[in-house]
Amino acid sequence: MSRPIPPDRLDRLVDAATRIFVEQGYRRTQMADVADALGVAKGTLYLYVESKEALFDLVVRLADAPRPLRPPATLPLRTPKRGATLRYVRQQLAAGGELPALAAAVLTRKRPTDNRAELREILEQIYDVLARHRHGIELIDRSARDQPELAALWFEGSRSGLVGLLVQYVRRRIAQQAFRPVPDVEAGARLIVETLAWWAVHRHWDSHPQVVDDDIAMATATTFIVNALIREN
After folding, report:
1. pTM (global) more than 0.85
2. Cα–Cα distance for residue pair 108/124, rounded to 1 Å
3. 17-33 burial by CB neighbour count: b if 16+ within 10 A, else e?
4. Do 194 and 126 form a contact (C-beta atoms < 8 A)?
5. 55, 143 in Cβ contact below 8 A?
6. Cis omega before residue 72 (within 30°)?
7. Lowest-confidence range among 37-41, 42-46, 87-91, 183-187?
8. How far apart are alpha carbons 183 and 95 in whole angstroms?
9. What is the mean pLDDT of residues 181-208?
10. How many CA atoms lie within 13 A of 218 on its CB side?
């Protein structure tokens, strides 16, 4: 008689695999590394996934999913067809990166009545999206050398698209004299994204982390950017 699988095993597997893929990258990660991190025999992993490719696909899909995870109907998960993980990430980036405040600001040419409130709302929405997907973003970031097509979706697609929208927004507000001028708008927009991304995502994997409450981190990062850009009349 086979032993029942612990109900939290899938959660622990995804968390352990995410940590190892982030630490070592896709190519260097071995199934044995994940098994050691999970505290099980290597063969136990194959009750859940057929291969390392299937494990990576599972992690990409579930790293940021709410816990507890719902086990798939059929286990072990088969090795995904070529391009399946890439298509999933592309769909998620298209559907999950909605930033209504920034979109409205770019589409509306009229200067807002409260520039400070508008900018803060935009920054907080960006921060929230990054924070909610931080494991997936870090996973793609650390696997970039081994998964160049996957990395391109984030670095050349989603992130570049976000920077492009911010360039339009910041340039318009500078022209309206709502923002202070900056030497280069493109560099300024990238600075905004990287500042928010570091606090929302990358600080959680810092080798010497500074313990900061998530709400305080967001408030501090957004306040610095707001105070740097807003032009007081």
Report:
1. yes
2. 19
3. bbbbbbeebbeebebeb
4. no
5. no
6. no
7. 87-91
8. 34
9. 95
10. 17
